[in-house]
Amino acid sequence: MRNKRISGNIKAIPFLLPFFVVYVLFTIWPIIKGLQMSFYDWSIIKKIRFIGLENYAQMLHDPDFWASLWHTTLFVLFSTPTMVILALVLALLANKKSKLQAFYRGAYFLPTILSVSVISYLAIFMLQPYSGFINSFLHLIGIHAEPFWMAGPHLAWVSIVGVTLWWTVGFNMILFLAALQDIPDYMYEAAKIDGATRWQLFWNITLPQLIPVGRIILLLQVLASYKIFAQIMLITNGGPGTSTRPIIQYIYQTGFHKYNLGYAATMSYGLFVILLILSILQLKGQTSQGGES
Amino acid sequence: MRKSRAVMGNLLPFIIAIIFIFPIIWMLFVSLKPQGLGISNPLKWFLPPYTFTNYVHIIADFQVLRWLLNSLFVGIVTTIITLIVTSLAAFAISKINFQYKKFIFIFFLIGLMVPGEATLIPLYQIAQSMHILDSYIGLIVPGIASPLGVIVLKSFFDSVPKEVIESARMDGCSLFRIYYSIVLPLAKPALASIAIFTFIGSWNNFLWPYMITFSDHLYTLPVGIPVFNSNYSQDYILPMTVNAVSSIPLIIAFFFFEKQIVKGISFSGIKG
Predict the structure, then answer these.
(1) Which domain of life does the protein's organism represent (chain B) (predicted)?
(2) Which of A12, A23, A268 sits opposite B98 (nearest CB)?
């Protein structure tokens, strides 16, 4: 028996090794390395110096860190509910029996497969004042306003939320759609025999059955929204001023424009801890609620 | 009343669908317009004259073609290596009896919990000390380290009955032979989903290639598009053509592989 196990070990090694090596080098090692870097004054241009917790102290007193974290949180607060609810609505629409069902699914999902550069430049060209499609369309239907979609801080945020919604909501829709199709038909049949209306079917069968996947989507969405960066960098570059700069962009600029890699790594860890706490809170909320029902 | 509700019920999904694909349709029409056209009426974008010269221009522009080929090369190589290393590891965990199996599997799960964005800075530092910045290796290798494929494939391999494996062993099949000729063919649907998902992820990846490529002949399309567009300010016809060129392969792939893409997303939902 023991010999068999040891021979199993030897046999498993060639299968495990290739993935193991890549995984340790490029996924695990960066996690450890990041923690190490956060204790150093780590710069590309200067000598590296151990400074203990100084980076962490700096982070707690850095108004730019808190401002960018606040912008990102605002984005999460505004975009998450719309992202989840619209995804549910689209899934319901795309699940209805219709000759165009396949077209609806495809259309709602199609933007998701485009690259962030493509959707950002599509947004820029559509939202451009004077020559963009949206404003010239407004003129065409008799509205002679010239909104600067990417200039004012409020409007810039509206544009970013709108573009991100259009680009990524299809992903959540697919998750809802898969859950909708898993609801067994007999539940609806039985309720119909009891004379339930369509509205009652939705409230008492569909919606409760979707709650588990809804929670997963909510968690994934919050995590994904906190990591927003590329489309903001390309569309507004964090502007006007720094009013739309998200946390990842601030980390990126600290690391690669100011060459302060140690402090950038510290803030990455700060973000990671926040995301971890959010995940734990959300998972805990789920289990305690699950216990009640 | 009833009738108007039915009309609404059919009209609403249709209108939303049109809104969703409209920017993409517009992009394709703009890419077909002759350059230097001052268009003030937005409906004119959709009317003739049409021309393919923009596409000729883009293909003849060696730079954009190079970026396209880079994206294709990086995407294909990343996908193939990912399939090989993840399926090998998943096979070991699912079908070979060895010590610390549970520990190894949990070790692989850790990587799922840490968002990639949180480790970009140290990853960059590591890539620098390995001298793989600004190279194809640097573009490809970090992309294959995702454990999601291992987890999905393991659950697929688990459904291959033990008896099949054991009788093959009795007949003197090597483990590698079992992996290659029995288990892999049975997992084709899962492999296809992972392949398409990995390829799209790589094709669209922006942040990492943007950080580590400095020479413009190594840019992938998502990195090259902003460079091209910011150097070009006459109008947006040519930039839109570049957008179209980088989207059309994906749109075509989407029509062929919609099923697998959708399945791949359901897998990533399991991850959460």
Answers:
(1) Bacteria
(2) A12
What are the chain A neighbours of B266 within 8 Å (beta carbons)? 174-175, 178
Is A15–B88 a contact, with Cβ atoms under 8 angstroms apart? Answer: yes
Contacts of A114 in chain B (CB under 8 A): 24, 204, 247, 250
Contacts of B151 (CB under 8 A, 6+ apart): B90, B108, B109, B112, B271
CATH 1.10.3720.10 corresponds to the domain A63-292 = yes
Report percent pLDDT > 70 for chain A: 96
Which contacts qualify for A281-289: CB closer than 8 Å, 24 or more apart? A282/A215, A282/A218, A282/A219, A282/A222, A283/A219, A286/A215
- The reply to whether A48 touches chain B by the CB within 8 Å rule is no
Question: Is residue B206 predicted with pLDDT exceeding 80?
Answer: yes
pLDDT of res. A58: 93
Which residue, among B78, B101, B117, B121, would best test binding to A if mutated, counting the most A CBs under 10 Å from its CB?
Answer: B121
Domains belonging to chain B, first-starting first, are 62-271 (1.10.3720.10)
Could you read off the pLDDT of A201-232 as tens digits, one per residue? 888 889 999 998 898 889 889 988 998 988 99
Q: How confident is the model at residue B40 (pLDDT cuts 50, 70, 90)?
A: low
Q: How far is it, in rounded angstroms, from Cα B19 to Cα A107?
A: 9
Burial degree of B191 (CB within 10 A; 0-12, 13-18, 19+)? buried
CB contacts of B175 in chain A (<8 Å) are 11, 15
| Subunit contact B115:A252, Cβ cutoff 8 A | no
Model pLDDT for residues B129-162, shown as the tens digit of each residue: 999 999 999 999 988 877 888 988 998 898 888 8
